[in-house]
UniProtKB/TrEMBL annotation:
Pfam families in UniProt: MFS_1
Region annotation Disordered: where it falls in the sequence: 1-32
SUPFAM superfamilies: MFS general substrate transporter (SSF103473)
Swiss-Prot/TrEMBL keywords: Membrane, Transmembrane, Transmembrane helix, Transport
Molecular function terms from GO: transmembrane transporter activity
Segments crossing the lipid bilayer: 99-120, 132-150, 156-176, 188-210, 222-243, 292-312, 324-346, 353-375, 387-406, 418-439, 451-474
Subcellular location: Membrane
InterPro entries: MFS (IPR011701), MFS_dom (IPR020846), MFS_trans_sf (IPR036259)
Keyword Transport: yes
Identification of the protein by name: Major facilitator superfamily (MFS) profile domain-containing protein
Length: 510
């Protein structure tokens, strides 16, 4: 429900919108006829200097903590690949194909439990549920260090997938309650860049850990799980007490800043701020045809995304043979992936357009994988082959953020937004089942069938995202011609858009 206190604070300055939006009992049947409010009009309700100062506070107080949380999330998810290069399968006597099963089983609970955990997160607050999920997956990482058999690791990966399933959808939703639509991509990019940094840091950490000579454990890879799991658990306790439940409860904001935060989200993010979650209403998102375009694009994204996250060390292993050097070679591609993500996300926010940059990311994916696959002797052309791994990382980083931002920008109903995210993000991760099964040990070290398969998913994603974007552009123009106006998404405040495309003034955020 809306916060009555903030609604009253905002009411007097929202009068220029010609509608009262403060009633906590308002539903779609009570909404008055839609009145288009231009960007100039809405801008007059908010002091730009005060808004910039508020965003700086959010950036300094929220983003670093969320980025660190996601860094540990990515570390705990992806450390299996580093452990594998240090002999995990051999040390635990895995049979042929069992490592792929351990990689793949993670994604089954990840998909099954994401929607219910995200809905619980909406009910009890992301600021409390996110640290609890972090505590769980950190503890499971610690337990992995004690695993003695295939069955033990298999069971732990199942529960790890369950614990991590609601994390990313909840973080995205949490940030949409603090930032405008045109501010979201670069913030999510900074947050998501932690994943690339985690992949790079994981290689460096593995390099250091594998040098440990100790009689306390029987295999060096156990230290990787001990170190990462311990730090994750400790940080989750800090985050539980630090993160504000909502802007209304943020101790670092005064009353005027809380009211400003409320108005910003009503104008350019949500139709009803902090609306109570109702499953029946949230499921209406699946009545929109474009929803399935977004989900197909998520599927196409998932295969290359998980291929890089899970198998980049194995791909690089085709270039070098030393275990230590392999992990070092994964650092630079992941770092440049984070840089490319930030460049594309900041540019996308500046231009207030998403789909061309999503398509560009998929193009990088296709070129990177198909180039590596086309090289007959990677040792003879090691520079070209290694550069192809950079393009793989560029192509998987940017679309992952921009795609989630794109469909969140086009859904003003908070329940629908959370539901779509909690299905779309896990669906992309479910494609890890494809990645984990196409990268077969018998195809090592080149993994040619896997490279070609992944490249095809990249090409298809580019085609689907481009088609969806062109449809939105055509539909916006059609609506403008019918109404005799020239509106874009920024010209219509989201408080009017609870019913999505059914609203005559609705414009797609391209």
């Amino acid at each position: 429900m809306e916060d009555p206190k903030l609604a009253n604070l905002a009411k007097s300055e929202s009068a220029g919108m010609k509608k009262d939006t403060s009633s906590s009992n308002r539903n779609s049947n009570d909404v008055e006829s839609h009145v288009v409010v231009s960007e100039d009009a809405t801008a007059g309700l908010i002091d730009p200097a005060a808004e910039r100062a508020l965003c700086r506070k959010f950036d300094l107080r929220l983003l670093p903590i969320l980025a660190i949380m996601y860094l540990f999330n990515a570390l705990d998810k992806g450390n299996l690949g580093n452990a594998q290069t240090a002999g995990l399968s051999k040390d635990l006597n895995f049979k042929t194909g069992q490592y792929n099963q351990i990689v793949g089983i993670f994604f089954v609970p990840y998909v099954l439990f994401a929607p219910p955990l995200a809905m619980l997160g909406k009910k009890y607050g992301p600021a409390r549920v996110l640290p609890l999920l972090m505590f769980c997956f950190g503890s499971l990482t610690l337990l992995t260090a004690a695993a003695k058999s295939f069955s033990g690791v298999f069971a732990l990966r199942w529960f790890l997938g369950m614990a991590e399933s609601g994390f990313f959808p909840l973080v995205i939703y949490y940030q949409t309650t603090f930032y405008r639509r045109g501010e979201l991509a670069r913030r999510l990019a900074i947050f998501y860049a932690a994943s690339n940094i985690a992949n790079a840091f994981s290689g460096l950490l593995a390099f250091g850990v594998f040098q440990i000579k100790s009689t306390l454990v029987d295999h060096p890879w156990r230290w990787l799980f001990i170190v990462e799991g311990s730090v994750t658990v400790c940080f989750s306790i800090f985050a539980f007490f630090y993160l504000p439940k909502t802007a209304a409860e943020a101790r670092f904001l005064n009353e005027e800043e809380k009211a400003l935060a409320y108005r910003r989200i009503q104008i350019d993010s949500s139709s009803i701020v902090n609306e109570k979650f109702v499953l029946k209403e949230a499921l209406k998102i699946f009545k929109r045809p474009t929803t399935y375009g977004f989900l197909i694009t998520e599927i196409c994204l998932g295969v290359p995304l998980q291929a890089v996250a899970l198998f980049l060390p194995q791909i690089v292993q085709g270039l070098v043979s030393d275990t230590v050097t392999i992990n070092l070679y994964t650092v630079a591609p992941n770092i440049t992936g984070a840089v490319m993500l930030l460049v594309l996300a900041f540019t996308s926010d500046h231009l207030r357009i998403r789909f061309p940059f999503v398509c560009l990311g998929f193009a990088f994916t296709f070129i990177g994988f198909i180039t590596y696959a086309a090289i007959s002797d990677v040792h003879a052309q090691i520079r070209v082959a290694y550069f192809a791994t950079f393009m793989m990382c560029w192509g998987t980083s940017a679309p992952s953020v921009l795609l989630s931002t794109w469909y969140n920008n086009n859904v003003a109903h908070e329940g629908e937004r959370l539901t779509l995210t909690s299905v779309g993000v896990p669906l992309a991760n479910l494609m890890g089942l494809v990645s984990s099964n196409v990268f077969q040990e018998k195809d090592a070290p080149k993994y040619l069938p896997a490279l070609i398969t992944t490249a095809c998913f990249g090409a298809t994603g580019c085609l689907v995202a481009g088609s969806l974007g062109l449809y939105m552009l055509w539909d916006n123009n059609r609506r403008n011609r019918r109404q005799g106006v020239n509106l874009t998404a920024k010209d219509v405040p989201t408080l009017q858009l609870r019913d999505g495309p059914k609203v005559e003034e609705f414009r797609w955020f391209l």
